[in-house]
Amino acid sequence: MSNEPAPPGGSEDPFAPSGVTWNRVSPKLTTARYVTGAIWLGIPFVGAVVLGVIFGGWVWSAAAVLALLGAWIAWLVPRQVRAYGYAEREDDLLVRRGVMFRSLVAVPYGRMQFTDVSSGPLTRKLGIAEVKLHTASASTDATIPGLPEAEAARVKDRLTQLGEARLAGL
Prior knowledge:
Keywords: Membrane, Transmembrane, Transmembrane helix. It comes from Salana multivorans. By secondary structure, the protein is α+β, with helices and mostly antiparallel strands. The chain has 2 domains: about 30-80; about 85-170, PH-domain like, CATH 2.30.29.30. It is about 45% helix and about 25% strand. The protein is built from 4 helices and 7 strands; from the N terminus they run E-H-H-E-E-E-E-H-E-E-H. It has helices at about 30-55, 60-85, 120-125, 150-170; strands at about 25, 85-90, 90-95, 105-110, 110-120, 130-135, 140-150. The strands form 2 sheets. The protein has a 4-stranded antiparallel sheet. It has a 3-stranded antiparallel sheet with strand order 5-6-7. Helix 1 packs antiparallel against helix 2 (about 60-85). The protein is elongated, with a radius of gyration of 21 Å. It starts with about 20 loop residues before the first strand and ends with a helix. About 20% of the residues are buried.
């Protein structure tokens, strides 16, 4: 361990700023991702099994690969959902995600141009939505998936108010 002091205003870990309380996304996001994965993998898996029955031999390897991919997704998705978090600070919004490849995005409220709330048929059925922040930078990806619908509306309204207040102060 290094004896150097922590950087000013933060902890040693850039993905865990000191003094930040993280809000989690809904565990229902796991269900949504499982259903999506089952659809995308299930149809080819059934096709591979049918072809395996008809032709036999090495054709079964396609079904095996798809089954392994499904097992990997079943293991990975809950970890990814638990890794999502967001924090509303005084001057900016922090959004973190990722297990192996972690990401932390800080979006100053004054830089936000607008916010979206979106929900597809599956996520609507589960009662969750996604909030996306848009800035002038095309590379900014500040998306918070899997929020309960009421929380998504609250976050969108709060971010809109804070964005307008900070923009007016410029």
